[in-house]
Design a protein that fits this description.
By secondary structure, the chain is mainly alpha-helical. Helix content is 72%, strand content 0%. It has one domain: Cytochrome c oxidase-like, subunit I domain (Cytochrome C Oxidase, Chain A, Up-down Bundle). It binds fe (ii) ion. The site of fe (ii) ion (FE2) has 4 residues, from helix 5.
Length: 229
């Protein structure tokens, strides 16, 4: 494993591909999915162990909105990564499935995971009612899924997809910063309405800071792409 990690830094990429027998199941050579196949298998194992750990905890414990959102996100994380093992020779086809990992991770499942963690931290550090926090979480993840799933169309503009993706991708990806903006409002509003003065200031700063940074990323990454028609 050490040799493999060092490989990124010291071994030329083509040699790394040879070393890890990329020819058996070629998955290397795609941006963001550069990992040798064996490292990809490692990522799958890590995702599945999170699904297992959180899943078993949910089965034994209380089923809440927050942990349902979290497990949905984690299952999505594992399932969508499987497309990184499918590497069609046709470049247009390859791009479609490549975005299934790259876009659906960032604007789909990671938003669910982040929303769930944020909601959990906010309950703990603000003492605001769970019901109130959960209502916010519902709206945020609904917006994230509506904008994120169809917003994937902003990657389908020039890879041979039908023309309607120009409009679909543009309009829905323009909405992608909305759930992130709601997360900012959510974090700051809950902290303002807090019922307890929690000593863990770092957690409160994390909750606000992560929401703000994710929003800036959302605006940069998604809002500048739209309106191509
Ligand atoms: Fe995207």
């Amino acid at each position: 494993m050490l040799r493999l990690s060092a490989g990124y830094l010291f071994v030329p990429y083509a040699e790394l591909a040879k070393l890890t027998h990329n020819e058996l199941l070629p998955t290397m050579g795609r941006e963001f999915l550069e990992q040798p196949t064996i490292a990809k298998i490692g990522i799958v194992i890590v995702c599945l162990s999170f699904v297992f750990n959180i899943g078993m905890t949910i089965l034994k414990g209380r089923k809440t909105v927050i942990n349902m959102v979290l497990i949905t996100g984690l299952i999505g994380l594992a399932v969508f990564f499987l497309f990184s093992f499918y590497n069609p020779i046709n470049l247009a086809l390859d791009k479609f499935f490549w975005w299934f990992v790259v876009h659906l991770w960032v604007e789909g499942v990671w938003e669910l995971i982040m929303g769930a963690l944020l909601a959990y931290v906010l309950i703990k550090v603000t003492g605001v009612d769970r019901e109130h926090i959960e209502k916010w979480l519902y709206v945020i993840i609904a917006m994230a899924l509506i904008s994120g799933l169809i917003g994937m169309g902003h990657h389908f503009f020039w890879i041979g997809a039908p023309k309607y993706w120009l409009w679909m991708g543009s309009v829905f990806s323009a909405l992608e910063p909305v759930p992130f903006f709601m997360m900012v409002l959510f974090a700051f509003k809950m902290v303002n309405e807090r019922r307890i003065e929690h000593t863990n200031k770092i957690a409160i700063t994390w909750a606000k800071g992560t929401a703000v940074m994710a929003f800036l990323g959302g605006v940069y990454g998604d809002f500048y792409i739209p309106l191509h028609p």
